[in-house]
Amino acid sequence: METVEIQIEPRESGAKGKAKQLRRQGRLPGVFYGPKVKPVSLELDKKDFLSRVVGLEGSHLIRIKSSSPLLADRVALVKEMQFHPVTGDILHADFYEVDLTAKVRVRVPLHFVGKAEGVVRGGILQPIVREIEVECLPMDIPEYFNVEVATLDIGHSLHIEDLPMPEGVAAVYESNFTLVTVVPPTVEEAPAVEAPAAVVEGAEAVTAAAPEEKKKEEGSEA
Question: What's this model's pTM, rounded to 2 decimal places?
């Protein structure tokens, strides 16, 4: 896996309103931490980070360039990013230091490739998960996995154990869960249409004549 070099500098932590001030200046606040390092508050150019990291798919290693010996040449993963709930603007980034000789667990996206046989016959391709967790050395992290679906017919599925893993990469799971399936086409029931009432020819004449017949019957009884 290639690493992305980003210029990052430490910043003063604890100052009230400092993060907002940094954002107004086009800087992004963040924190650097790991199992063998104390957390370090940092700042970096937001525009540079957005263009080079945020748009990338999957997990990517960040090699830190810095004037500070606390950060220079450290390698990290972007562990978390915080975004404004309304504007979607990025607010904060967490960098987790990794040891290139120790395995890590990361999530890797899935790409579903090909047109399933079941889809050709009218079925619907239904992905169950869009990413999976794997364990490997940092430099072996896959950018994504291609999941071939061409042979799937209606009612067929692919499971995690069906997905080939590159050497040195192991999927993390407890049960053989489903990745994708092809479901039967959805058939909408036609709405019930109420049949029109049958019209019997001459019905109105009979109905209209009924009172007259009743009068004749009453007269004859008298």
Answer: 0.74
d(CA 61, CA 104): 12
Tokens at 74, concatenated? 């450290």
| CATH class assigned to 3-97 | mainly beta
Chain segment 160-194, per-residue pLDDT in tens: 999 999 999 999 999 999 999 999 987 655 565 66
Quickly count helices (H) and strands (E) in the chain: 4, 13
CATH superfamily of 104-183: Ribosomal protein L25, C-terminal domain (2.170.120.20)
Strand residue runs (E) in 56-195 = 61-65, 75-83, 90-97, 104-113, 124-127, 131-136, 145-148, 157-159, 170-171, 178-183
The pairing of beta strand 90-97 with beta strand 27-34: parallel
Q: Where in the chain is the domain with CATH 2.170.120.20?
A: 104-183
Beta bridge partners of 166: none
**96 beta partners:** 33, 77
pLDDT tens-digit series, residues 32-61: 999 888 999 999 999 999 999 987 888 889
